[in-house]
Amino acid sequence: MRDADVTEPVPAAVPIAIDFPRALFAAEALKRAALVMMARVTTSFEDTADGTRCLLTPVSGADDPAILERDFRREVLDQDLRLLVEAQTESVRTAILGLAFSRTGLQEMSKFRDLAAFQPTSTDYQLLPFRFTRLRGND
Q: Which of 8, 35, 103, 132 has the largest count of CB atoms under 10 Å?
């Protein structure tokens, strides 16, 4: 056997444990951060009495564990704030989408009080996303 054929075993990476209090960080924020950091760390989660413990295992040995921990903490905070902004602006986003989709031609159907009572035949109408379009000029 030649020396070139012998490879040194790669030492197992020691996981970095980070505890996040449940009262401060949403579990979804932790999962989103793990997704963003997936190329650099493998993340596993453990439920603890007062929160969640994230175990970060570096994908490569080239990354400094302190830098990985710092970047993961920053990503968790970023994702948690994004969730907060999403929750606070949900009504505005819903209103904007409602206004955008209210101009689809469905207002013509307002004369039918019960949507179930409206039964167009397939030869008269074509169902398109968010609106009905008349195929023929039947009056």
A: 132
